[in-house]
Amino acid sequence: MKKKLLAILISCILIPLSASAHSEEFHVGDQVPPHGEKKVTIYFNEQCHGCSEYLHDLVAPYLTEQGYEIRWQDYINDPSIREVMFFRAEKLAIPLELQSHIMVYFEPSQTIVGGHLPLSLMEQILNRDESLYPAPLIVSQDEMVDFDDAKAVSNTNYYVYSPGYEVQSYSLEQGLTSYQDWFEVNQDNQMEVVTKGLTLPLVLGAGFVDGLNPCAFGVLFFFIAVLAALKRTKKNILLTGGVYIIGIFLAYLLIGFGLIKAINVIPSHHFAAKVSVALLVLVGSINLLNLLLPSFKLGYKIPRISKSKIKEYLIQGTYPAAFIGGFLVGLCTFPCSGGIYVGIIGLLSISTSYWLGVGFLLLYNLMFVLPLVIILLLGLNPLVLNKLKQLKSKHSKVMHYLSVVLIFVLALIIYLWL
Q: Which residues cross the membrane (predicted)?
């Protein structure tokens, strides 16, 4: 039974990861064309009518005329393509505001065009003297503009960027030579591209604080007391409690993967980050109201029906029952403390690649269950267990306030990151 349970746990974690790895390797391997060939990869959303019209009626005929072989990549119908698109953008350090719903990569040259540009400007980009410009060169304009409307064109700006230099903005009426003139003066002022190092300590700290939630604590206290009443040895209490914690870990981890998939459905990371901020503010506000108004209770505790079912499993005191009980606790505590989790995943979606994000997600969940591991170890002593119960009862509200503060801090960090 133990070996079978372990096999199920491992397969639950490895199967989704291996599937994602396969899809990414398949697409990344064929990005660079053979020497001398002119290829262009277009990442687009087929469901966007205006985008498809712009690409198929305007861009595609022009690129075909110029001798480019077009590789169409619809990232809405194939999520693995979206992962590759985000990976390429991150590898080139393309700012979020320049990551458009249309991304066009010209290969083998280091030219990237985002969004909707008039053909006259695209022609200047492709025919430029590359020795006079930095590489890679990213040119983006995200709005759908009627290029026949002179006023609309004059009132719309496009953006030019190369890693290490500030983003420059010009009216669509201005040609690319405006950026060439700017670069000629500023090419020696290249800035060091610094990776934001705030993510790791924030993930570790947030995971630990998220784990300090009374929802999971109360059930663990109950479980330890049940095992002690059943005259279990300390070793058995430790092992059975460990299986219970593994159940919580796996449930919360799978919720995290689900949130990542949900965020990846949103084409723009920039927009996904805004959605995360809005959700954080909403969840933080609800939690704050729960604290300030005793009569207002919305999603703040494990439901009574779920709690009774969880206790039914835990009273059995077996490994499978402990795992199922822990898994249910992991699912049911998400409404209680999931605001921080949503914020961290929103932050990871705009600041890391897919696989680095998976690594951070694992670290977050390890930190999330760390307080439970500490309580399990300390709770082997009945006197210490009673003291922990008293502390939990006394400081429960403080922990909730700390959670609310962290939710709003995460919302602010993501907002400032945009």
A: 211-230, 242-263, 275-300, 321-348, 354-378, 398-417
Write out the two tokens for 335: 């409404």
Q: Please count the residues of the chain.
A: 418
Residue 35 · residue 108 · CB < 8 Å: yes
Separation CA 27–CA 84 (nearest Å): 7
Helices (H) and strands (E) in the chain, counts: 16, 7
In degrees and rounded to multiples of 5, residue 188 shows phi and psi of: -90, 0
Tokens encoding 161: 């960027």
Strand order in the sheet with 39-44: 69-74, 39-44, 103-107, 111-115, 137-141, 157-161, 168-171
The Cα–Cα gap between 107 and 38 comes to: 6
Residue in this structure with the two tokens 């009627």, named with its chain if needed = 146
Q: Nearest to residue 220, comparing CAs of 338, 375, 335?
A: 375
The strand pair at 39-44 and 69-74 is best described as: parallel
Helix axes 214-229, 354-378, angle to 10 degrees: 40
Per-residue pLDDT of the chain (418 residues; tens, 9 = 90+): 444 444 444 344 443 444 343 333 333 333 444 445 789 999 998 888 888 899 999 999 999 999 999 999 998 888 788 878 888 887 787 877 788 889 999 987 789 999 999 999 999 999 999 999 998 999 999 888 888 888 888 889 999 999 888 889 999 999 999 999 999 998 887 654 444 455 788 888 888 878 876 666 666 677 777 777 667 788 888 888 889 899 989 999 999 988 877 776 665 566 667 777 887 888 788 878 877 877 666 655 555 556 677 777 777 878 888 898 889 888 887 776 677 788 788 777 766 666 777 888 999 999 999 988 888 888 777 787 777 777 767 777 777 787 788 888 878 877 776 6
3-state secondary structure labels for all residues of 147-213: CCCHHHHHCCEEEEECCCCCCEEEECCCCCHHHHHHHHHHCCCCCCCCCCCCHHHHHHHHHHHHHCC
Distance CA 387, CA 357 (A): 38
